[in-house]
Write a structure and sequence with these properties.
The chain has 211 residues and is mostly helical. 78% of the residues lie in helices and 0% in strands. The chain has one domain.
Length: 211
């Protein structure tokens, strides 16, 4: 079993194209910048998502394509939101934690996204998306939708959703022979854990200063 996994890893790695390589490198940089609230999270994120949109449509991975189209739109929105300033030229957005009401909103958003992607891919699988795995693609997509939405609002909890996305995407992309992307999500999982710890520390500092 392990020898077969290793063999597939080596074969697929040898077939990794330059577009996938660029997408992976840009994605790692984007997550690295997000840990430190660096605005470069968004231009690198756009490079990552545009490259993955091309790859996803090329192999009829419509679930992944929808995620990256959504990412592209929210990268633009987040870029604007993170750079907004008040009259004193202070940034408006700061790292905060969810309220109970916000938890309910994001869980409802996740459930809606999961159902929408699951039923869409179940319908499209037969004729348009043969490589789709509806229940797994829907989970990875819905957690990613939720994480990106919260990231644009600088919510600590965005990292929980990113961790879920990355954890589920590692085997998902491996079985679809995107082995370099599978390794990429392993790296993102490690970075997301570090990002969660960093944003928790920053949120505590902000809360302490406001007390």
């Amino acid at each position: 079993m392990l020898s077969e996994i290793y063999r597939q890893f080596v074969v697929d790695l040898q077939h990794t194209g330059w577009v996938e390589f660029i997408a992976v490198m840009a994605g790692i940089l984007s997550v690295w910048y997000s840990r430190s609230e660096n605005i470069l999270v968004y231009p690198t994120g756009l490079l990552n998502t545009v490259a993955y949109i091309w790859l996803s449509f090329k192999l009829s991975l419509l679930g992944e394509a929808s995620v990256n189209l959504y990412y592209t739109a929210l990268n633009i929105y987040g870029w604007i939101a993170w750079t907004r300033k008040d009259r004193r030229q202070q940034y408006i957005l700061h790292i905060t934690r969810n309220s109970s009401r916000e938890w309910v909103s994001q869980l409802s958003f996740f459930a809606f996204c999961y159902a929408a992607v699951f039923f869409a891919l179940t319908y499209l699988k037969q004729g348009f998306a043969p490589l789709a795995i509806p229940w797994a693609d829907a989970f990875a997509s819905a957690t990613a939708y939720t994480g990106m939405w919260l990231m644009t609002r600088k919510k600590v909890e965005s990292w929980y959703w990113w961790i879920a996305t990355n954890f589920s995407s590692i085997p998902l992309y491996f079985v679809k022979h995107y082995v370099f992307t599978s390794v990429y999500y392993l790296v993102l999982l490690i970075l997301a854990i570090g990002g969660l710890m960093e944003w928790q520390k920053r949120a505590r500092a902000i809360e302490h200063a406001a007390a």
